[in-house]
Amino acid sequence: MHRRRFLRFAATAAGLAATGFAGCRPALAAAPPGKRRLVVVMLRGAVDGLNLVVPYTDPRYREMRPTIGLASPGADGGALDLDGRFGLHPALAPLLPLWRERRLAFVHACGSIDPSRSHFEAQDFMESGTPGVRGTPDGWMNRLAAAMPEPHEAIQALSLGAVRPRILAGAAPNANFALGPDAGRPQPLDRPAMAEAFDGLYSGNDPLSAAYRDGRQARRQLMADLAAEQAEADKGAPAPGGFPGTATRLARLLARDERISLAFADLGGWDTHVNQGGATGQLASRLAPLGEGLAALARGLGAALDDTVVLVMSEFGRTVHENGDKGTDHGHGNVMWVLGGRVAGGRIQGDWPGLGPADLYQGRDLAVTTDFRSVIGMVLERHMGLSDRQMAAVLPGWVPSTRLGLFTA
To answer: Signal peptide location in the record (predicted)?
Structure first.
């Protein structure tokens, strides 16, 4: 096997990214007050934003969704009122306290300016931060990690999975680590014989050997951190499965380890072409753990929520009309979520275009009136404190055109 393929296998087996690791300090400390953090949650498969944040006062909404459209607030299975115009899907009820505390905002009719309805392309554009530009070599969160003033090390940017996502691809070091039910399951490189073989193979001073050793060190530190958290949580009982458990453990990791500034998680299962459901059904069954998980993350962060922003995004929305299979097809505009202590929450932001025939994109979809990069740009500027030059490096080619009031003074 080629040496690079050996290394790729080694790092993947360890649950960490295969390239670019830097040295890690062995000591752990609680995150200092005021440390700014960003957590991005991507809903892969194109979630239906029109049934998440429901424009229940628009008569066209129920007309075009006779079986999957949610009823108005107060009706059986109706949306939960947010501002007298829009309502929240009832499966997301755990997030209502955050909305009322003005810690949660939604940007509607938000998305990519690129018209692609391909999951692969649209996700690539959203993760690279360069819609319509194919071949961008790195992801915008990796470029953000490179722009930050903190020391660049493997645990500074963390993704919750066994494979490094596109959004974190690039030269800046980052780690991949599972926090779900299988987080503590031994990997091939945890076997002494396998570890000894690879340790010997990559004992040199070359960059690949250094990357391998740093990846091993990062995994050992995260495993120790996770073991300590599990011993404290529920008197040593394992965390519950699914996203709520993962989000709870992520919050504890963030509170425990001062080095983690950026975190990324993705969830699948949002491509609801058939039997999507309304207040109940397929979509609702996926939204319930999502809402519970985000609420658990906010609770677990405690006071650190004041210095954390959580972005929730999806590659595009879904058609306004339900299809013949009582589902929805690939669309365009969607809704982006922004959660955090300094977020100017309790408001639906963005320019709502309406659902009239002349308002729809290509006659079928919610139009995009806010470029998703405008939301990210506000987070970079107002929350992460990046300069114009740094923001241009993270979001190349983006020209600010929409000023959103996403943050308090």
So the answer is: 1-29
d(CA 212, CA 33): 33
CATH code where residue 159 lies: 3.40.720
- Bridge partners for 37 per DSSP: 308
Element (H, E) at 116: none
Task: Please report, for residues 33, 155, 227, the alpha-carbon distance to residue 302 in angstroms, rounded to integers and kept in the order given.
Answer: 12, 21, 21
Helix, strand or coil, per DSSP, at residue 41: strand
User: What distance in Å separates the CA atoms of residue 126 and residue 167, rounded to the nearest whole number?
Assistant: 8
Residue 43 is encoded by which pair of tokens? 């809903």
Q: What is the pLDDT of residues 120-160, one digit of tens each?
A: 999 999 999 999 999 999 999 999 999 987 666 767 899 98
- Angstrom distance (rounded) from CA 166 to CA 231: 33
Give the total number of structural domains in the chain. 1
Tell me: the pLDDT tens digits for 244-269? 999 998 999 898 888 899 999 999 88
Radius of gyration of the chain (CA): 21
In a domain, 404, yes or no: no
Return the amino acid letter for 82.
L
Neighbours of 106 (CB within 10 A): 24
pTM above 0.85, yes or no: no
